[in-house]
Design a protein that fits this description.
The protein has 8 helices and 3 strands; from the N terminus they run H-H-H-H-H-H-H-E-E-H-E. With about 300 residues, it is mainly alpha-helical. Belongs to the cation diffusion facilitator (CDF) transporter (TC 2.A.4) family.
Length: about 300
């Protein structure tokens, strides 16, 4: 069964609620449209965290009669939704920023606003690192997406804070909305990356080239005269990996010989790729039909 990683989802939800409260307070104190943009992204973070939590719960469900390969692809829907939510946040940020650019306003109580925003950024940064490490450890696209999103929020906050300091020092009020627009563009780029990754997962993208090369090396290392393989293919589904290949052996082998050879090879592959589900098809190397239907 796929591991239940929803505890990380609850951490993300808690962080989003905390940062929304803090950043909204910073905006109310200063009147900065940059901080308003930052607070708007935190609302998106909350929605994304809730979606991620649901996806992690669904992905943890075991295979059933209608889903023989489990529910791990639910994670890709979460990453896709999060990417779309980032687009919405970016559009709202740019909208408010353009309005403020047309009518610049002075900032108030900047010091208090900066202090509040720094606390919120520290929370996001810490949670982002937890999610990114957990995503890498468990190969969870949902945790990686949420971690990347929160880390983007940290970079966003840093940019906003720099802009506010510059406005404070120079008294150039137009800098605040300009920084907010730059933040919105940066968020759009991050959203595109998440949507792209989730789409590739739903389309059964192959394992990375280095993994495929290593798998071919493992197969080749077991080959001998009269033994070959072909039609190897791989795919990822959430935290799981799948591999298929055809093993060509002498037709004179017994079923037991072929089965034992294949099982030993599969064990070697899984030992190096523990999340891999391997399907091997045994074929006689002399039979022309073994070479039909190439990939």
């Amino acid at each position: 069964m796929h591991q239940d990683l929803s505890r990380y989802g609850w951490i993300a939800v808690g962080a989003a609620l905390a940062t929304i409260t803090l950043k909204a307070g910073a905006w109310l104190v200063t009147g900065s449209v940059g901080l308003l943009a930052d607070a708007a992204e935190s609302i998106v973070n909350l929605v994304a965290a809730v979606v991620a939590l649901i996806a992690l719960k669904v992905a943890a469900k075991p295979a059933d009669k209608n889903h023989h390969f489990g529910h791990t692809k639910a994670e890709y829907f979460s990453a896709g939704v999060e990417g779309l939510m980032i687009f919405i946040a970016a559009a709202s940020i740019i909208f408010f920023a353009v309005q403020r650019l047309l009518a610049p306003q002075p900032l108030e109580q900047v010091g208090i606003g900066l202090a509040i925003s720094l606390v919120a950024s520290a929370i996001n940064g810490g949670v982002a690192l937890v999610l990114l490490r957990a995503g890498a450890r468990h190969n969870s696209i949902t945790l990686r997406a949420d971690g990347k999103h929160l880390m983007t929020d940290v970079y966003t906050s840093a940019g906003v804070l720099v802009g506010i300091v510059l406005v404070w020092v120079t008294k150039w009020n137009w800098l605040d909305p300009v920084v907010a627009i730059a933040v919105g563009i940066n968020i759009l780029i991050a959203g595109y990356g998440l949507v792209k990754e989730s789409t590739e997962g739903l389309m059964d993208i192959s394992l990375p080239k280095e993994d495929n090369d290593r798998l071919r090396q493992l197969l080749a290392s077991r080959l001998d005269e009269g033994i070959d393989f072909h039609q190897m293919r791989t795919r990822e589904s959430g935290t799981l990996q799948f591999m298929e290949f055809h093993l060509l052996v002498p037709g004179s082998w017994t079923v037991k010989q072929g089965h034992d050879f294949l099982e030993d090879l599969v064990d070697e592959i899984v030992a190096e790729f523990p999340r891999m589900s391997v399907t091997g098809h045994l074929e006689p190397i002399e039979d022309p039909r073994s070479y039909e239907h190439p990939l």
